[in-house]
Amino acid sequence: MRILLTGAGGQLGRDLQEILKGHDLRPFDHAGLDVADREAVLRIVEQVHPEWIVNAAAFNDVDGAETMTPIAFAVNGAGPGHLAAAAAVVGANVVHVSSDYVFDGTKGAAYTEDDAPNPLSVYARSKYEGEKRVLESGVSACVLRTAWLYGRHGKNFVKTILAASARGGPLKVVADQVGSPTATADLAEAIAQLIQRPARGLFHVANSGACSRFEFAQAIVRGAVEVLPITTAEASRAARRPANSSLTSVRWQQSGLKPLRSWHSALEAFLQSLPDPIDVQGKG
Questions:
Q1: Distances (CA, A) of 209 to 160, 212, 216
Q2: DSSP-assigned letters across all residues of 79-143
Q3: Is 101 designated active site?
Q4: Strand ranges (E), the chain
Q5: Could you give the CA distance from residue 79 to residue 134 in angstroms, rounded to a whole number?
Q6: Which residue among the candidates 101, 111, 123, 128 is catalytic per the annotation?
């Protein structure tokens, strides 16, 4: 299949390039295609004429979005809409990656696709805007909400904790935020599986289970240093974050798709695969 991939330079995008290399893949990083540029999106989509558009492009600075609202909405909100509109012109299907942060975290249990979003931050509102634009476009599309991504490439929570651990403990990590850590390699494989199926619509796709940031950090350092729990208030971040945005799916397996393994298993496999020393600066 001919696949146009946006956000190809990011941590998910780079894993997708590896997973999808058996297809006629046309990857574009931000320099190659700014999804916020409507005319550029239409021009390139018409040139490539893909069967699938996989959108991994995003403005992911959750705290920065609080002061860079127009950029966040241009990339996360308008951008997916531009891709959906271009897909309609050439008859392409769309996969768009969204976020667990569209929820406010007050449910007290894992969110399913049937739960109503209530985004708390600028970043979260921009991501919700993007998924609405795709789903309301009428194009053949899959919107995938995922969570707490980490992988070999780019910056992420796992690399940050490993780098801090290497400098010595104790580490202070928030204990009152719960989510579903997800390996980008597993998400990329799920996307590769999805584009072979007729399934369409909204799906939650994350490694199974849930933990707090504090518990996640403990699992990452594996006893190498002490990890101390702190509150979200003590962390003093600019953007509000949901207390429990863990995800589960009522639609993925119903569509005949294989569920992702547990976050414990995914993390252990990731840690075992790392070089020594790991590149904790996000250079891949």
A1: 22, 11, 11
A2: HHHHHHHHHHHHT-EEEEEEEGGGS-S-SSS-B-TTSPP---SHHHHHHHHHHHHHHTS-SSEEE
A3: no
A4: 2-6, 24-28, 52-55, 93-99, 141-146, 149-150, 171-174, 178-179, 182-183, 201-204, 211-212, 227-230
A5: 10
A6: 123
pLDDT tens column, 2-44:
999 999 999 999 999 999 999 999 999 999 999 999 999 999 9
Q: 116-154 pLDDT, tens per residue?
A: 999 999 999 999 999 999 999 999 999 999 999 999 998
Domains of the chain, residue spans = 2-154+182-207+245-261
As a whole-number percent, the residues of the chain with pLDDT over 70 amount to 97
| Overall CATH class of domain 2-154+182-207+245-261 | alpha beta
Q: Over the stretch 203-235, which tens digit does the pLDDT of each residue have?
A: 999 999 999 999 999 999 988 899 999 999 998
Closest residue by Cα to residue 153 from 5, 54, 280: 280
Structure tokens at 157: 């929570």
Three-state DSSP state, 149: strand
Q: 3-state class of 200 per DSSP?
A: coil
Placement of tokens 């003093």 in the chain: 236
279 pLDDT band, cuts 50/70/90, is very low
Q: What is the pLDDT of residue 50?
A: 97
Cα–Cα distance measured from residue 120 to residue 198, given in angstroms and rounded to the nearest whole number: 33
In terms of pTM, does the model score above 0.90? yes
- DSSP H helix total and E strand total for the chain: 10, 12
H or E stretch at 225: none
Is residue 284 pLDDT above 50, yes or no?
Answer: no
